[in-house]
């Protein structure tokens, strides 16, 4: 009997760039179905138009790929309250798109996502992307760090709820150990 795969949509919300990733996962492997970014530069600075676009784009991804679960990165508190408010709105609109399509949605703090993927809650975007490359045996372009953050959210969700025992081909105690085994990958 073949084990059923779970399809997860990962979202890294933003009002200028929204990262997304779709994965299929089971106890044996995680497969990236699609990864990318949605940009909003062509819309201008009108926030309500950007929010509508986020809602429509997330709905399109859901309709195209039919995930059953969504993992989304929570905005983190920074020094700029206005940025936090904008990110919270973007996240809320993405969650609403999932809700109207009956997706089970889980929010994750950035530190939790980073720790689940790299073992270090303070890892950089480059470190997260590097560890995802190791886990998934693929290469990601630097221009897609928002997308790899979304992929990390989806992988974190899988590890948290569905994938006990699913481990990278080789496990590392941290970024330094990974770099020691993979010279040149931290550049």
Fill in the keyword field for this structure:
187 residues, Nucleotidyltransferase, domain 5, 5 strands, 45% helix
Written description of the protein model:
The chain is α/β, with parallel strands linked by helices and 187 residues long. It has a single domain (6-181), classed as Nucleotidyltransferase, domain 5 (2-Layer Sandwich), CATH 3.30.420.10. The protein has six helices and five strands. It has helices spanning 47-65, 81-100, 110-118, 125-136, 145-161, 175-181, and strands at residues 6-12, 17-25, 30-39, 69-73, 104-108. Strands 3-2-1-4-5 form a five-stranded mixed β-sheet, with helices on both faces. Helix 1 packs parallel to helix 2 (81-100). The longest helix is centred in the middle third of the chain and has 20 residues, at 81-100. The chain is globular, with a radius of gyration of 16 Å. The relative contact order is 0.19. Mean pLDDT is 85; it is low at 164-172.
How do the strands and helices of this protein lay out in sequence?
Elements: E1 6-12, E2 17-25, E3 30-39, H1 47-65, E4 69-73, H2 81-100, E5 104-108, H3 110-118, H4 125-136, H5 145-161, H6 175-181
Parallel strand pairs: 1-4, 4-5
Antiparallel strand pairs: 1-2, 2-3
Question: What is the CATH homologous superfamily assignment?
Answer: Ribonuclease H-like superfamily/Ribonuclease H
The end-to-end span amounts to 44 Å
Query: What is the average per-residue confidence, as pLDDT, rounded to a whole number?
Result: 85
- Annotated CATH topology: Nucleotidyltransferase, domain 5
Give, in order, the helices and strands: EEEHEHEHHHH
Structural class: alpha/beta
Q: Total helix count?
A: 6
Low-confidence stretches: 164-172
How many domains? The number is 1
User: Which range best describes the helical content: under 10%, 10-25%, 25-40%, 40-55%, 55-70% or over 70%?
Assistant: 40-55%
The overall strand count is 5
CATH architecture: 2-Layer Sandwich
Oligomer: single chain
Sheet with the most strands, sense and barrel status? 5 strands, mixed
Determine and state the CATH class.
Answer: Alpha Beta
Radius of gyration from the alpha-carbon trace, in angstroms: 16 Å
What percent strand? 15-25%
General form = globular
Give the strand line-up of the largest sheet.
3-2-1-4-5
